[in-house]
Amino acid sequence: MRVLTKSPQHILKSVFGYDAFRPLQDECIRDVLKKKDNLLVMPTGGGKSLCYQIPGLIFDGLTIVVSPLIALMQDQVSQLKALGVDAVMLNSSLTWDEYDRNKALVLSGQTKLLYLAPETLVKDDIQHMLCEISVDCIAIDEAHCISEWGHDFRPEYRQLKSLRKNFPDAVYLAMTATATPRVRLDIVSNLGLQVKEPLIASFNRENLYYEVIPKSSPSLQTLDFLKRFKHQSGIIYCFSRKQVDALTAELNQHGYKALSYHAGLPDDVRSRNQEMFIRDDVQIMVATIAFGMGINKPNVRFVIHFDLPKNLESYYQETGRAGRDNLPAHCLLLFGYGDIRKIRYFIDQKESDDEKRVSQTQLNAMIHYAEAEACRRTPLMNYFGETYTRKTCGQCDNCLNPKEVNFDLTEAAKKFLETVLKTGERFGASHVIDVIRGSRSQKVLSYFHEQLDVHGIGREYSAKQWQFLVRQFIQRQLLYKEPEYGVLKLNANSNKVLKNELEAQGYAPPAEKEKVVSRVKKELVIEDYDAVLFDILRKKRKQLADSQGIPPYIIFPDKSLIEMSATLPQNKDSFSTIFGVGQKKLEDYGDAFLGIIQAYSQARHK
Ligand code: ADP
Ligand code: ZN
User: Fold this and answer.
1) Ligand 1 pocket: which residues have CB below 6 Å?
2) Whole-angstrom Cα distance, residue 374 to residue 376?
3) Statement: the pTM of the whole predicted model exceeds 0.90
4) What distance in angstroms lies between residue 558's CA and the mean position of ligand 1's atoms?
5) Nearest protein CA to atom 20 of ligand 1, as residue
6) Is residue 381 located within the same domain as residue 447?
7) Which residue of 135, 167, 192, 310 has the fewest C-beta atoms within 10 A of its own C-beta?
8) Residues 160 and 17 in one domain
9) Which range marks the domain in which residue 599 is found?
C-alpha cells in the first residue's frame, strides 16, 4: 500500500480505521520518527503494535520487528495484510520458496515491515540481505525475553545489542507488558538503549471487571456463571491437567462447546484446540497456565480462575487475556482455602529457603487480593508499583456490592486468642484450630494440649469457618502472624480484647454448605445495538474468515460489528466512519456488510 499523506493521525484512520490514539501512542510514535530510542511498557491490549507499525509506514527504509513466537508473527502479518499493508515474516515455518520470495520482497523495498525471530536476525544470509537496504527501525516485541528476571527468558535476545553497529541509522524501540523495574533495567542495559525515562502506561485495565467468590461447588458455580455468556468466548484456568479434562467433559455434557489445553496433550492436539478457539469454532478453552502466550484473540469476554493462582503477577497476566478489544470483560476467581494448602505444599517442596520465602510472600499477596474488602484494583495496582487513588472503581465486586461489616467478632476472638496464649504462641493457625475444636490428633496429644482448659471451647465453628475468622483477626490486627512460618502471636490489641477493652466488628463466617454465585446479574451491556443484526453480521464474518482461512477478528473486531449494528450505515461514506474500517477493509468488505445492513433495515421498515 502506498500511503500518500504521511501524518500518523491520518494513517491511524485511513489504514487502521481508528479515530484517536490511545495514551502514549502518539508520544511514542513521535519519538520513533525522531529516531529516539524508547522502552515502551504497556499492558496487554494497550496498543503497542501501532507504535512501530505507523512509523514503519512513514519511514522510507525497512522496519524490523523482532518477535519470539511464530504464532505472534503470523497473527500480526495476517492483520496487516488484511489492512493492505505489505508485511512479511522470515522464519522456519516457511517453505524455501516462500522464504526466498519474502526475501525478494524485502530487497525490492516493497515490504515496509519484516517480522523475524532473534535467531533469524543474526543469520548470515539475513545480515547480508540487510546490508543491501536501509533499515530505519528495529522494534523488539516481548522485550522482557532478554531478562533472566522475566518470565520467558530467551538467550538469543542478548545478541541484539551487538548487532546494533550493523544498523547505524536504525532507532530501537523495545516493548513489553512486564511491569517490574528489575526487568525494565535489564532491557535497557542489555539492548544498550539510549533511554532516560521509559514510557510507562498505566497497568489498570479499566474494561475488566474483577470478582472473587468463595469456592464451594466450583463446577456448579462455573455453570451458573456461564449462563450469562451464552455465545461469548472465555478461558477457564485450572491448576491440574486432570481438573482441566474433567471440567471440559462436564461443560460439554451441559451443552457448551469447550476444549482442553495443557502440556499433557500432544502438540498437534494442543495447536488444533487453540486454533479452534481463536477461530470461534469453540466457545470455551479450559486450560492450565500452559495456555496463553501468543494468544491475540481480542474478544475473550471472561476468564475464570477455577483454582487459586500462585501469585498476582500470573493472575494479572491470565486475566489480562480478557478484553483485549477494550470492551467489557469479566474476571472471576473462585477462592478456596483448600487451594492455599495445595500451593503451600508445592512451596514446601522447593529446594532453597530463599525460593520458599519468595513464593510464600507472593502467595500472601495473592491471598491478600482475594480477601480484600475494598476495591480490588488497589492491591492489584499496588503490586505493580502503581498507586490507585480512586476510592471506588465501579468495576469490581467490592465497589459494586460492598460487604457489610455487621458481625461481632469479639467473642470468637477472645476464645481464639486465649487458645493461642495457652498453647504458648508457638503454632500456626491449623494447630490452634485443632485445639480449640477439641481434636485429639497426634500432634495435639504429643503436646498434651488436650489437657488445656481451652481444648474444645470452639466447637461451634467448623475448621473452615475458624480459618475465615482467623484471617479477619489478622487483617484487623487483633493478632500477629509471623510472615515466615505463620506462627501466631498476641499483640497489643490482642491483650485489649482479652481484657474486654476492645471490641471488633467484621464479616460473619460463611455457612458451611452455602453456595455463593457470581453476583453481577446484569448482562455485559456494551452499548445499545441491534443484537439480531449483530448475529447476522457475525455469521457473515465467520463465513468470510473460514473461506480465507483466517480468524474472524482479522476481518473485523467485535467492536466494528457492534457499531454497525448500532448505527446501521447505509452507504460507503457512513460505513467508513465505523471503528476499524480503513481504506482496504472498505474495499474488501464494504459491499458484503453494507448489503446485509441495507437488506436488514428495509425488512425492518416494511
Ligand atoms: P498489545 O501489543 O499492546 O497487547 P495490540 O497492539 O495488539 O496490543 O493492540 C490491541 C488492540 O487494540 C488491537 O486490536 C489494536 O488494533 C487495537 N488498537 C490499538 N490502538 C488503537 C487505537 N488507537 N484505537 C483503537 N484501537 C486500537
Ligand atoms: Zn473497585
Assistant:
1) 18, 21-22, 25, 42, 44-50, 298, 324, 557
2) 6
3) no
4) 13
5) 47
6) no
7) 192
8) yes
9) 527-604
